[in-house]
Amino acid sequence: MAQPSTDKEAILPAKAGDLLRVTPEGDEPGKPVYLVAVPSLAERARWRRDIGALGASAVAEKTLQEVLRAAIERTASPVERDAAFALLDAVAKDPDAPETVRRGLAAIEEAAIRADPDYARLVADSRHWWETAALVAARLFLRCWENQSLPFRREAGSVPDALLERLPESHLHAVGLRAILAMTLTRTQEKN
């Protein structure tokens, strides 16, 4: 079994089979620790297939932004529209925009969800995909855990749903999102 990375190494690109530590409640002794394998090409293909089988569809960020702009165009007053577009442009130029700008963007997105059914459906589809993708990744790529009262097991290449359902949902999302991040880093490595 490969040795798990430390949290500092967890942000570095990894190769298939490496184990990454996920500590949703912090690194203090006695807190739950989950070990997630970096997926291979075949495992990534299974992950995508399983997500599709559950009816989730990915929504490109560019599509979300285009539909958000169209929703603002249709529903906002000219003054509100200009301010919203200026904020969207600021975030597009600086993804690390200050928290106040991010809160403003969140307020615009929420208003668009309430005002525009097309945008609301697209956001719901995107949220569904991310939730499904994270849960499927946790099921497929979780290799063991520490500091849990439940015994760990895998069956037919995945952790059984009945076992996963006994864990906190926030932990499953943290595990799944970490595996998704590892896949993203691995794909970037393959391109280089």
Walkthrough of the structure:
The chain folds into two domains: 9-57 and 129-191; 61-126, no CATH class. Residues 1-11 and 186-190 have low confidence and may be disordered. 59% of the residues lie in helices and 7% in strands. It has seven helices and three strands. Helix 2 packs across helix 4 (99-115), helix 2 runs antiparallel to helix 5 and helix 4 (99-115) packs across helix 5 (117-141). The protein has 192 residues and is mainly α. It starts with 18 loop residues before the first strand and ends with a helix. It has helices spanning 41-53, 61-75, 78-93, 99-115, 117-141, 161-164, 169-191, and strands at residues 19-22, 33-37, 142-146. It has a three-stranded antiparallel beta sheet.
Topology of this structure?
Blueprint: E1 19-22, E2 33-37, H1 41-53, H2 61-75, H3 78-93, H4 99-115, H5 117-141, E3 142-146, H6 161-164, H7 169-191
Antiparallel strand pairs: 1-2, 2-3
